[in-house]
Amino acid sequence: MLKIYELILYPWLTLAVIIFFILLKINAPYGKFFNKDFGLSLNYKLGWFIQEIVSPLTFSFFFFYGPIQKNIITWIFFSIWILHYIYRSIVFPLRMNKNNSKIPIAIILSAILFNSINGFTNGFYFSNINYYEPTYYVNINFLIGSIFLLTGIYINITADNILIKLKLKNEGYIIPHGKLYKYISCPNYFGEMLEWLGFAIMTFSLPAFIFFLWTVANLFPRAIATHKWYKKTFENYPNKRKAIIPFII
């Protein structure tokens, strides 16, 4: 298993870079960019649950598979991962309005593959690669990473709340306002990028940094595309609003 883990990491990192440039050219066909030409589709809520629940299940399996003893630090990392994906796979879909949105099965399968490998590389790391001392929480990287993580979670959830309230009105797409929407079109993506950057800094592990790069590879191009879509769709879209990073991009 260790050999498989070692063989995966660097190709997995390289693939993240490739996917980044592909997604700058091609929009993943779900949500506002849904494209029926991508084949059979499922209900969005069901498809989202299926693809996202794979991550906590895979991570948990490999987290418990290995000789390294668990302590308060590794349980903190475990809790961060599991709570995030319980929110993403169960709570978030349940909060969405009831609609007929679809997601292509091809996207679901690609997400299942990603979540399987990502869950494996990160879960396996904590049980087989690195032991964290119980006093690790005083390390400067743990403290700085915690700030990024908590800030990202707050931004992500508050941005989601604003979008969900708009969608519950069943009035189609509406320009979101409030909080970081004053400055960027996709604070939900910005918050998730900050969250996993914080996790990578806290754990100071290669698979966590690769996960952060994958998060950027997926969300950064989508934020750019979403920003362009808003500007094209709404004539009164705020001109000073950026796409993903306040005041910059």
Structural write-up:
- This protein has helices at 2-25, 44-63, 72-95, 105-129, 140-167, 187-203, 206-233; strands at residues 41-43, 102-104.
- It has 249 residues and is mainly alpha-helical.
- Strands 1-2 form a two-stranded antiparallel sheet.
- The radius of gyration is 19 Å and the shape is globular.
- The model has no long low-confidence stretch (mean pLDDT 92).
List SSEs in N-to-C order.
Answer: HEHHEHHHH
Strand line-up in the sheet with most strands:
1-2
Structural class: mainly alpha
The number of E-state strands comes to 2
Sheet having the most strands: 2 strands, antiparallel
> What radius of gyration results from the CA coordinates?
19 Å
Q: Beta fraction of the residues?
A: under 5%
**Amount of helix:** 55-70%
- Give the helix tally: 7
CA-based shape: globular
Averaged pLDDT: 92
Any low-confidence stretches, pLDDT <50, length ≥5?
A: none
Termini gap? 41 Å
What's the oligomerization state? single chain
Give structural attributes:
249 residues; mainly alpha; two-stranded antiparallel sheet; 7 helices; 67% helix; globular
Describe the secondary structure blueprint for this structure.
Blueprint: H1 2-25, E1 41-43, H2 44-63, H3 72-95, E2 102-104, H4 105-129, H5 140-167, H6 187-203, H7 206-233
Helix pairs in contact: 1-4, 1-7, 2-3, 2-4, 5-6, 6-7
